[in-house]
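Holo model, NAP. Inputs:
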Amino acid sequence: MKKTLSIIGFGTFGQFITPHLSPHFDISVWNRSDYQSKASELGVQWVRLKEALSKEIIILCTNISFFESFLKENAHLFNPNALVLDVASVKILPIELMVKYLPSTCEIIGTHPLFGPQSGKNGIQNLNFVISPVRSKKVDCLKDFAENTLKLKVFVKSAEEHDREMAYVQALTHFVARAINEMNIPDSPLSTQAYLKLLELKGLLSGDSFELFKAIENNNPFAKEIRENFKSQLIKLENLL
Ligand code: NAP
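Output:
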């Protein structure tokens, strides 16, 4: 029999990941606003929060800004034997909150799928997936599932290692890409290879919500320093001209 799994937060990522998980789990979903028709379109059960939090595996797919109030209000509804995972783009903060509020009997694993509807539109094989173990006997089982069933490239990293690397990989990249997007740089028949890369960067992140951008920048404790360094390098360069 398939294990029961609930997706809490059926936004961009929750909807995107559902078809990849539904062949392997009995999936229920819950969302603050009504996505009942989207759930039935994807062939999964739309349930009340209490039922969603009673499943064997619970994946928190809501915005990180909602984590603390959600966990504070609903910790008592979680299945005490559940394996709880998050998918947030930063790892220190959600892990701290899950450890603080969830029943001490729940198993916890932090994860960061480094892909979404844009990068995964042609499939998720070979895309990067980070696992940050917290307290669980199922880390190897998750690693095996991600590597051998979903065919992802798996990295096991502490939350701090993850956030330090993501300050460059995501926070800096999204910062530059947002600025390029705001400038609305034009396409040109004279584009060089380098300019095509800038145009590509502009398109790559255009589907992401501003909330996600804020979470990547504001909830990573190492991101501000990298942004400050980048801005001061721009000023130094400008002054040399
Ligand atoms: P999203 O499309 O903006 O969806 C946000 C979700 O959070 C929705 O389900 C929303 O519910 C819920 N939510 C927000 N504030 C809430 C509140 N105060 N109360 C209750 N629910 C609330 O964002 P997303 O892109 O799916 O991101 C969700 C998580 O996935 C984030 O942790 C993000 O870092 C992670 N992630 C995203 C991607 C990606 O490519 N998008 C990739 C990897 C990881 P409503 O529909 O009711 O507003």
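The mean pLDDT is 96. Strands lie at 3-8, 25-30, 45-46, 57-60, 83-86, 107-113, 128-135, 153-156.
Archived with the compound record.
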